């Protein structure tokens, strides 16, 4: 007994350009009805959704987003830089009698200690910067280069305030220049690199 595979005949429509019938691919699910809710289940919006219309007009991060972004970015940068410094410091501390396990242990200990130390220090600097910038934006209702420069000045001064007025003034000036340079570089990247 021979079995024949059932192949339903596809709909044929004449193709006016070629003068021959055009075939349509067979869809095995054409008779299955899918509820509308399931069809649109994964049609998610691509733009942010806001509870209030005023939120959509604002083009800057909230204070919570600022704190999270700056603190996290600074901690990650400090951890990576500190880990790299610790790696080279651990390699420099090798002794001639060290085994491979001891060398690996020295590198891991040095990288972990330096990465943790630098990450915590820069994370605190990012937290102070985010707090000062969010406060300045709330007071002036402006988010521009001068707000970032003021936040950099304040951050540098606060971080070095315990070492005296002169040290706080120098650190504040360096912080303001650094913040201004970062904002100017970001604006240049937006304008010329279209990022």
What's this model, at a glance?
The protein is mainly alpha-helical and 195 residues long. The protein contains six helices and two strands; from the N terminus they run ββαααααα.
In terms of topology, how is this protein built?
Blueprint: E1 12-15, E2 20-23, H1 36-39, H2 53-57, H3 63-92, H4 100-140, H5 145-159, H6 165-193
Antiparallel strand pairs: 1-2
Helix pairs in contact: 3-4, 4-5, 5-6
Describe this structure in words.
It comes from Turnera subulata. Keywords: Membrane, Transmembrane, Transmembrane helix. Its main location: membrane. Residues 1-14 have a biased composition (Basic and acidic residues). With 195 residues, this protein is mostly helical. Among the domains are: 64-141, no CATH class; 144-195. Helix content is 64%, strand content 4%. It has helices spanning 36-39, 53-57, 63-92, 100-140, 145-159, 165-193; strands at 12-15, 20-23. It has a two-stranded antiparallel sheet. The longest helix is centred in the middle third of the chain and has 41 residues, at 100-140. The termini are far apart. The model is unreliable at 1-5 (pLDDT under 50).
Q: Can you tag this structure with a few keywords?
A:
disordered N terminus, mainly alpha, 195 residues, 6 helices
């Amino acid at each position: 007994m021979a079995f024949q595979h059932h192949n339903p005949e596809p709909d044929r429509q004449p193709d006016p350009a070629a003068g021959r019938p055009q075939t349509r691919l067979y869809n095995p699910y054409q008779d299955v009805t899918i509820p509308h809710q399931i069809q649109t289940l994964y049609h998610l919006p691509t733009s942010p959704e806001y509870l209030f219309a005023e939120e959509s007009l604002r083009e800057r991060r909230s204070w919570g987003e600022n704190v999270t972004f700056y603190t996290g970015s600074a901690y990650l940068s400090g951890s990576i830089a500190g880990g790299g410094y610790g790696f080279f410091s651990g390699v420099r501390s090798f002794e001639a009698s060290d085994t491979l396990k001891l060398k690996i242990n020295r590198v891991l200990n040095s990288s972990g200690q330096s990465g943790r130390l630098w990450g915590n220090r820069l994370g605190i600097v990012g937290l102070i910067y985010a707090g000062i910038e969010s406060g300045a934006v709330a007071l002036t209702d402006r988010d521009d280069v001068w707000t970032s420069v003021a936040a950099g000045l304040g951050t540098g001064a606060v971080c070095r305030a315990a070492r005296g007025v002169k040290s706080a003034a120098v650190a504040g000036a360096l912080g303001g220049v650094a913040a201004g340079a970062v904002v100017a570089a970001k604006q240049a990247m937006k304008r010329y690199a279209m990022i």
